[in-house]
Design goal:
The protein is of the alpha+beta class. Helix content is 35%, strand content 19%. The protein is built from 25 helices and 32 strands. Strands 10, 11, 12, 13, 14, 15 and 18 form a seven-stranded mixed beta sheet that branches. Strand 29 and strand 30 form a beta hairpin. The N and C termini lie far apart (71 Å). Bound molecules: ligand ANZ and zinc ion. The site of zinc ion (ZN) has 8 residues, from loops.
Length: 804
Amino acid sequence: MNYNHREIEEKWRKRWRETGVDKVREDSGKPKYYCLDMFPYPSGNGLHVGHWRGYTISDVWSRYKTIQGYEVLHPMGWDAFGLPAENAAIKLGIHPAVSTANNIANFKKQLQEIGAMYDWDREINTSSPEFYKWTQYFFVKMFERGLAYRKKMPINWCPSCKTGLANEEVVDGCCERCGTEVTKREMNQWMLKITAYADRLLNDLDKLDWPDKVKRMQAAWIGRSEGARIHFDVKGTSEKLEVFTTRPDTLFGATYMVLAPEHPLVAQITTAEQRAAVEAYVQETLKKSAVARQIVDKTKTGVFTGAYAVHPLTGRDLPIWIADYVLMEYGTGAIMAVPAHDERDFDFAKAFNLPIVTVVAPEDSSVGDGELYVGPGRLVNSGPFDGLTVEEGKKAIVEALAERGIGEQTVTYRMRDWVFARQRYWGEPIPIVYCDRCGTLPVPVEQLPVTLPDVERYEPTGTGESPLAAIESFVHTTCPKCGGPARRETDTMPQWAGSSWYFLRYPDPNNDQAPFSKEAANKWLPVDMYIGGVEHAVLHLLYARFFTKVIHDLGLIDFDEPFQHLFNQGMVTLNGAKMSKSKGNVVNPEDIIEQFGADALRMYELFMGPPEDDAEWNTNGLEGVARFLGRVYRLVAANANHPAATRPSLEKLRHRFVATLQERMDSFRLNTAVSAFMEYVNALQPEAEKGLDKATLETLVVTIAPFAPHLGEELWEMLGHTTSVFEADWPTYDEKWLKDDEVEIAVQINGRVRAKLVVAADADAKTAIAAAKAAPDVAEWLNGKVVKKEIYVPGRLVNLVVQG
Ligand code: ANZ
Ligand code: ZN
């Protein structure tokens, strides 16, 4: 009668493997449910109990949905390309393919130990040619549609990883992976035109059941700004200077212009006297990160170019400066400065003694001339536009400019196109061939995959070329068009490529004719529940949404958003810090499973706290959960062979438990769902002497099975069932058992008990007093008297104070 977790867990894991209980049945006829984990990067460190929080949540949820009657797709795979495997290869001299395979084997073993219900027949690996063939295929399709293009441009360059980085991989001016400060470097880059999808990526956020925080982060990343472009003449030249502004209404307040130091016009317009100062400043700026340059309250620096622009409406001269607070990557890389109404311009004007002209005044004229004012109001000092509101002014001024052909309404995005090339080895080769005669050509689809060749040395060359460039047999190929000699592209795709569409592959993982069949994808997607860390709020989730939209537009799927519901689990901390191998504060799941069992670990992972919040690991808490599972085991075992007859007290507890659990599951409060079991078992304890009935035992076992699947199966078998508990039905409850009890209350008149009355225990004062007054004995007493005061003590008494 003792709970032997080792024996039970081993027994059921073996049984599941034999019966294939976790395999998806495509023909079951049940409604589908796709529950997906963000697949892991198989690192050499293995998984610690912190990683298991997310995997536990998704597995519990998948099993819950299974018992609820859904056909659940809950697959797992490996995001296997990327820098860490390659960096490890350089350090340890092991081929990335070998170390990746070892790491995958270890991860898989670990995941099987938590009893997770993955359908391993659908396992995918982004670094396998069968998979990356299709990643390359999507690149070719994008190339054909003009969505993949090559461009010489300054890119973020990590001097330590010796590779280009996407903007998304630069955090606070440093490389996301190694922390080295990122510099700029001019290189030919493959780019994906994600900006063509900016509006859809923004607008379709509305369709998604995602945490607001994540939606806001994506919206901020896309950064849509409505405004205008305005053209200024550069005085004494034929050059035009174009600015982007969100405040065309303040045009009359522009008193100077600012170019980003990298702006191409700088060299042309700078006067001889100013050249030296300008060049020095440009050099200085190139060393700074975009983030450092944008800090609002930092001291403003800049240099006058010696040149002037002409105000398009007043004809006044506006000195043209360069300053690092204007970024080349945003808008047009140039601004009209309006110091009276923009904080950064205001600080700059103060620092360099430039004029400040107020052109918007608040209705109560509480702000004086030359002071900073960023609020609403009416235009002043703006010639024919005086008196208009800010909104009216924007419209009228843009119209006036548009008539003269020197300005137009426009939208600008913060998001840039996606730098889609890395000068590294361990990634998907970009399937492009260069022919001297035919130009740049995609590798024909029937020749895919372009397989990653073996190399001797993984070190990036540092010349800006990937290690593949040194492999003659890879580089030299024949042109797919003319058959003449040609060269292959040697850059590889970024880490994010495979993860941008892997979720589409699980429904049809072995297809070698297409990335997936349309039918399979349309059947299973969108993903119903996507579970993973909040660190993917922007990059992965944005790229995956972009790929999905492109694939939709290629006609390969009918939906255009991949993940309907997103859940971000909180982190597990130890001593207040995020668990991580590098910090040395990890708890090893193997040890925990050996001592307490996988079921206890699973349940504890949920019990730690609200699933979306960070939670501190506490071994005492885990022990408590393990003891609780022992109690459940003994409670069921003691009654399994001779269940008692049903009785109302058990019925009531059971229906109430099911209702409570249901409510907590539906609102995804999985920690309180675990407490519901504890509350239920506590309430059953006094009933246990009289014995528990079959319905009580089965309800407990079926509902606990998603949380503690090994124990669930064991007890289900003990109750005489020969099929898996996951084929059982989720229990329902009857409202009638939820109604509260009735209680007997006393009715006093002037402090003396005159009658007894039965009311609902949760009756409110009004109902109880009305019932008291209407009671036969009481009504008699009240006859002809005036009730001065009515008091209700819930569950106890009604006191009526009467006169006369
Ligand atoms: C004149 C003006 C007057 C502006 C005013 C603001 C207030 P968001 O909302 O982020 O789109 N700007 C434009 N391009 C820039 C660049 N490359 N680097 C730095 N700043 C730039 O901000 C748009 C505003 O930021 C633009 O509107 C411009 O300043 C500035 F009372 O133009 B504004
Ligand atoms: Zn050719």
